[in-house]
Amino acid sequence: MEQEIKTEPEIETTPNKTLSQDEVLQAALKLFAQKGYSNTSLTDIKDAVGLKTASGVYQFFKTKQAIAETLRENILDSFSISIDDIRRRNRKASEQLREIVDLLFKLTEDAPEIIQFLLFVKTEDFLTDSTPLMDTAAFNKIKRIIQNGIKEGEIKSIDYLLAYCYFFGIINQTLLMVLNGALPKSADSYQSQAWLTAWGCIAKK
Fold it and tell me: What is the pTM of this model?
């Protein structure tokens, strides 16, 4: 159970400190990715944004869970919009999947905390009422790309969820190993190999 805002919040003592909601979200995102949700407190978040008390955080969010919910919604909305753009630019499933892979690898390189939170933090453990990741708009669109690829003969005639597992199992595991240091080079060093291997698993010969 998340602790609600105190009825008598502490008075912020940092003079002239202005804070935006986005700053709170960015600080929380990094902490959730680095330490995990359970190991991050509102005190950690207020420290990360340079406040002496938590009242500056409370003006935007009453609980840590509310921060996590907003983060998840924002990231998924942005990802969904990016997928829409990719689908408009490309007709073939192979082209669409290639651009999605390019996006995931770019984010892993430029904003690793986003990929960590989106794909590898188990948000269902603390956002119990949220839509399962695979049922969100963004991932439904990816599943439709695979279904269309099967229909058009680009992808093997197998269960589309299996095709998803084969393809993104390779992509996601590569990203995870980059993030945890098991693969020592930058994400873009493995991008081409990961794509060729993943696509080779599902492409119709």
Answer: 0.86
